Amino acid sequence: MAIATTTATAPPAAIQPVTVPSRHFDAWATLTRRRLALSTRTPREVVIPLLTPVLFALVIAPALSDTVGRFQPGLDYMSFVAIATVGLLVPISCMFAGLGVIIDRRGGGLRDLLAAPIARPLIVFGNLAVAVLLAGLQLVVLVVAAVLRGADFHASVTGIAWFAAAALALAVTMYGAAEALANVMPTQEEYIGAVPAVAIVPWFFAGSLFPISALPAGLGFIAKLLPLTHALALMRYGLIDHRATGLRDIWGMTNPTAMAALSMTVVTLFAIGLTALGLRAFRRASLH
Amino acid sequence: MTSRASIQVHGLRKIYPGGVEAVRGLDFEVASGEVFGLLGPNGAGKSTTIGMLTTTIVPTSGWARLAGIDVAADPIAARRLSAVVFQDSVVDGGRTGRRNLETHARLWGVPSAVASRRITELAAGFGIGGLLGRPVETYSGGERRRLEIVRALLSQPRVLFLDEPTVGLDPRIRYELLDLIAGLRARADMTILLTTHYLDEAEQLCDRVAIVHAGRIVALDTPAALLAGLGREILEVRLYADAEEGLARLRSHRVAGRDAFVIGSTITVPVHDDSARDTLAAVGDLGLAVAAVTTRPPTLDDVYLQLTGDRLGAAA
To answer: What is the pTM of this model?
Structure first.
């Protein structure tokens, strides 16, 4: 039952924005600075993901090298495992970054960001930039630690480029997975429970500690579908495995550059696909 | 549709997945500079309405405009004109108050120098100038809410949404905040849409109030006009016996009209023409088992209870 309806009368209002529109880049830079400040406020998100990979690089890789020895002529097993630790570090680091998404949603400032006059995907891209940056810094620490412990990298400009591109694409892929997962997991506890399955389990099948040719045929086929397998083969091709044995295990071809390009394409497609998935999950979680 | 309106809402409806119809076709307009209240209990659809106006909830049907801009067709432009103070605390607790404010100002495109000046002025005005260097997680609930109001004002929004701004605060801080929000009325260029389930808050702050019940507006007018509908006084009669039966007897003897209603064991009788004393005498003549009687001026609480009681009665 409506009692009464009155029509409001007040001075007319000019229909003009009160502020200059934020340009996309300015908004993205602001969101990135915000996320960086939140992520680096405590050492937890920076240091904890480093612990296991550094342990591998400093202790386990040399020990494995001593006990397992050289399984391929000309390939230092310690360096082989040192690259594998990158494949452990990047996923763990990026998955940890996904925790910030849940914190933002449940008790942080996300809703104010959603009310801002910006394109909302920029929020995800700001988070992505910081996740990639932090993973990159951790990766540098890890590589330096491995070199100090005796890893033998033969880096050329082209090799470093393959390594960096593969690491970057892997980081984007894993952050896309983290963003998607964080937007469907209601709590941090559930998210943390899912992290090992996404960040660690694939590592054992991706040619981290031994070539995928040593796996049973079925598992070997599955390994070839994992972006981590391609990223590890690319990073090794760039720094230690100039004969591209890892890439040959995947593609069975003879041209290393062609195989590297194919694997790079695979990892890039994963990066694009999982980023799109992350954006979609973000949109569904934030827009009802 | 009025071209002067800052907020225009027509046929706005929201059905969530699963079939819950939170908002069932709202129509209202809010003039520029007006303070407009959506008043109703939890679950009435107030926050869903704000969510649709701030473009975080997609309407199922209907439309809404802020200063003439369709929120669905051009959401970024609509958001540029508005700011929100949310029902829950929405801040980066690990960052300082100043950093929270600066981030908001940048995202709304406020130039740095202007933002810096406004932060200083507004924070001082809201009594949090000395807190800005501290992480927000060290703020009290009232301090956080002040920070959020300052943040919302930084872009000088044309439309300010206050979603239950005092909920969960202790009474002293609540009244302090009400005083500060009342001060916002002086900003003639800003339209405020306030949701609340505190009736005194709506009465104190709003030029007009829409009473929302189960996703529908059941009354919309100025607080004074809504109260006038309940007469000059309210007579409350608490009975030892069945109150519904008592009300039927009061109505049959024309002591109470159709606008009288029952909550629990109490009959609420709006007194229009007679004095409360005459009405009370008439109640006494009927020989009802009266436990207590009070008279008082009508409040929006009575308006709400009357309207929703009628509806619930009709539904039953």
So the answer is: 0.83
Q: Which residue of A has its CA nearest to B217?
A: A2
Q: List the single residue in B with minimal CA-CA distance to A118.
A: B76
C-alpha dist (Å) from residue B21 to B48, B60, B272, B305: 10, 10, 37, 22
pLDDT tens digits in sequence order for chain B, 316 residues long: 455 789 999 999 999 988 889 999 999 999 988 999 998 888 888 889 999 999 999 999 999 999 999 999 999 999 999 999 998 889 999 999 999 999 999 999 999 999 999 999 999 988 899 999 999 999 988 899 899 999 999 999 999 999 988 877 777 778 877 887 888 777 668 899 999 888 788 888 899 999 988 899 988 999 888 888 778 888 888 988 888 888 888 888 888 888 888 888 888 888 887 777 777 787 778 878 888 888 888 887 788 877 776 432 333 3
Residues of chain B contacting A21 with CB distance shorter than 8 Å: 76, 80, 109
Rg from Cα positions in chain A = 23
Q: Is residue A185 assigned to a domain? A: yes
State whether A114 and B56 contact (CB < 8 Å): yes
Q: Which domain holds residue A111?
A: 24-286
> How far is B150 from B160, CA to CA, in rounded Å?
11
Q: Which CATH superfamily is domain B5-222 in?
A: P-loop containing nucleotide triphosphate hydrolases (3.40.50.300)
Chain A positions in Cβ-Cβ contact with residue B311 (cut-off 8 Å): 1
Contact B103, A111 (CB under 8 A): no
Number of domains within chain A: 1
Class of domain B231-297 as given by CATH: alpha beta
- Contact between chains at A22 and B108 (C-beta distance less than 8 A): yes
Has residue A228 been placed in a domain?
Answer: yes
Rounded Cα–Cα distance for residues B59 and B27 (Å): 13
Which ipTM did the prediction report?
A: 0.82
- Record the tokens describing residue A202, joined without a space: 């694939």
Give the CA count within 13 Å in the CB-facing half-sphere of A285.
Answer: 24
Write out the residue limits of the CATH 3.30.70.790 domain(s) in chain B: 231-297
